[in-house]
Amino acid sequence: MIRKRKADNATKIFYNLEQLKKICAEWQTRLKLQDWTIDVKLVRYYEDIEGLAGQIEWWEHTREAVIRLLDPHDIPEPPRHGTASTDLETVLVHELLHLHFACCTNAKAHPPDSPSRIMIEQSINAITMGLINLKRESNN
Ligand SMILES: [Zn+2]
User: Fold this and answer.
1) What's 117's domain CATH number?
2) Cα of 126 from ligand 1 centre, angstroms
3) How many whole angstroms from 20 Cα to the centroid of ligand 1?
4) How many structural domains comprise the chain?
5) Cα(64)–Cα(62) distance, integer angstroms
6) What is the pLDDT of residue 107?
7) Residue span of the structural domain in which 44 resides
8) What ranges in 47-114 are assigned the alpha helix state H?
9) pLDDT average per 10 residues of sequence, the chain (140 residues)
10) What is the reported pLDDT for 10?
11) Which of 17, 55, 94, 113 is most buried, by CB atoms within 10 Å?
């Protein structure tokens, strides 16, 4: 889960589902998550993703997951304060990293807004930004 936040990086690296799937496969390999079957979907603002920029659902026993990201068409440009991040690659990596924490992010044990869940989300955010920055620095 990643909450809507003020955008600080207006990078849009994909504009359609085909491009998203390619980027997701790249990150899946980079993060050593090849043993997961991951379905990615773009959802419109009027579909229910609980006001989030991204969302993931997973089934550990079958190692399957579905990631839903807000459609780039629904991200305002320029970004407005309080709107979803325009940096969908960051959102994607955040959601993928949840799979590494799957064993300790049970929703019953760690409900949203519980201290443990907030700590997990903050850890995932920190790792996400580290990885994204490394990738982008190495591309420059
Ligand atoms: Zn999250």
Assistant:
1) 3.30.2010
2) 11
3) 19
4) 1
5) 5
6) 73
7) 2-139
8) 88-97
9) 46 78 96 97 82 88 94 70 68 95 79 88 94 88
10) 39
11) 94
